Hints:
- With about 525 residues, the chain is an alpha+beta fold.
- The protein has helices spanning about 5-15, 45-55, 70-80, 95-110, 130-135, 155-165, 165-170, 215-230, 235-240, 245-265, 270-275, 315-325, 340-350, 370-385, 435-440, 450-465, 505-510, and strands at about 60-65, 85-90, 115-120, 140-145, 180, 185-190, 205, 210-215, 235, 290-300, 330-335, 355-360, 390-395, 410-415, 420, 425-430, 445-450, 470-475, 480-490, 490-495.
- Keywords: Signal.
- This is Phosphatidylserine/phosphatidylglycerophosphate/ cardiolipin synthase family protein.
Amino acid sequence: MRTDRAIVAYAFAALCLLLQACGSLPPSTDKPESHHLPPASDTPSAKYTQAEVDQHQHQSGFRLLTLSTNALLSRIALVDHAKHSIDLQYYIFASDMTGHLLMQHLLTAADRGVRVRILIDDNNFTDEDHLFDALNSHPNIKVRLFNPLQTRNPSAISRATQFVLDWRRLNRRMHNKSLIVDNSVAIIGGRNIGDPYFDAGSDTHFRDLDVVAIGPVVQQASAAFDDYWNCDAAYPLKSLTNADDSAQRLAAARQILQGKVRAFKESDYAQTVLDELPTGPTADRRGAWFWGEAELVADQPEKIETSRDVPALRIGSKLKAMIDGAQHQILATTPYFIPGDEGTEHLISLVQRGVTVKVLTNSLASTDETAAHAGYVHYRKRLLEGGVMLYELRPSMGQAQPSTTLGKSSGVSLHAKTIVVDGRQVFIGSLNMDQRSKLLNTEMGIIVDSPGLAQAVTDFFNTAALPANAFQVTLDPSSHRLSWHATDDGKDVVYHEEPDANTKKRVEVSFLRMLPIDGLL
């Protein structure tokens, strides 16, 4: 769910770029620093985790979260087992059904003495019920907003005006996603907190990937969280609002959240979650881990302050080194694929030296961001001419998908961000293969050397790329026309224009393709 792209595209169309920063927030320097606590050692979960890690020196363990319901339950289970600290960093933390559920469990954890730090990017932040204000008044909960707007809950006009007047700053966002409990276990990947990411929404249902992580990589994630929590762009929520710290506000929030959670428990979705409880290990039960040497990679928060590209502040060089080391195959999954001229030629050069390069992205019909698709279209033919194999996820046709990967929801849209190299090295994180992730937003993820985890992510890719689930795009060498190949009810079908897309999306893409906005997407 990338509403920043739409803002970028239409703000550009309105010539907002002619207006440079006219009113900017001062750095948030007057705030107390805090840092992660030592890894827990006195809880049953910590003792189990440490025993597992001790058997794999210098390695970290991972479990892949493919099912949306499992991803939600694993977060709730970790929060419920927390004894000392919980750190959350998200681009989106929605005030919806699943967001309220997590808020309630975070509040319960704080009540039993757990320190909770919540860092949210302000681009999509809403607090109309003042629930975050209330949580922030709890002595054990602190909320900070990253790179905030100057007003709380702005109207559409106010929001657009602020982007116009403070364009260079507000066009740069924190896209990181992590949840760290007791500095001993973490969830890292592509999911935000909100109904669409857990199959609980009524509109878009994102197909995404996270990992539950234990071992040394968790302490690396905690250090990265501290860098963002204490940076100048992170503002205490209290400094941005007029909310008081009254007990009445927190008491009112408790009543609201209790009502929300009761409604959740009575919903059809909650029953589905119970019915689909996985039989294998989750974040809160014993089971096998994928082991391997791992590195947490994260852009520096100062990346949003630079007026030029500073490679030392971003993770791109490490991912490029991983990709350049490929000998046989690269599998890349990205919802928004805008490689740019340089990235396009780089992928083609890999093909020319014998590496198979496959990319799974959204089709026009499945994407939630037509601006991103318009950028992708610029490079599609050249990629195909160079031998890169392209697959575009189909929107659900109503058939049940394999529950181990694509779930059962309708209106699916790809949101996972992964790279697998030679069936051994894996990247899972928040970074899309586009110019916005490369140059404007901050991103994070993990790089793991683990054949087992690589195979699990490869299975996700291969199932998603099946002809029943995705279009394979090809280029006729004589006519240079694109074709989309798939199967319907077991029969091969071929389309010669973007399949299944509605008129609105086609018109939007046609308009956006005329704008030179690739560097902003």
